[in-house]
Design brief:
The chain is an all-alpha fold. The chain contains seven helices and no strands. About 70% of the residues lie in helices and about 0% in strands. The longest helix has 23 residues. The radius of gyration is 16 Å and the shape is globular. The N and C termini lie far apart (about 50 Å).
Amino acid sequence: MRGAKLEEIEDVYRREFRRFLRVATAFAGDEERGLDAVQEGFARAIRHRRGFRGEGPLAAWVWKAVVNAARKGRSVRPPLELAPQPRADGDECADVREAIARLPERQRLVLFLRYYADLDYETIGASLGISPGTVGATLHAAHATLREEVSR
């Protein structure tokens, strides 16, 4: 299939809006900017729908537009519940949050999209412009770093 139909993009919007908003809000820092990013991402997808090549799911192609809109001008930060927070002695969750915050941006982003947004490797890869194999390798590296840092 070459190009996406407006109705197909609308169907993705209706089915996945809450998920897009949740992810965009975490990326953008607040719900208002998250909503702006979702709207901007979908508007871009609609304007450029003829550019969809059909090489993967349409939802993955739209995810790329939304993630890019949410990331514009910002460094990806972990969602609030993963961000460093005041901690009590022996708080293992705080250790994990701090370790995640220290990961390289791509590792944080892939980790976040996999476990917070619950996206599959293909969708993450299409959203970030990397292969599913690179997604797997990036997750593996993130897990290895987290295991090492948390076990110290």
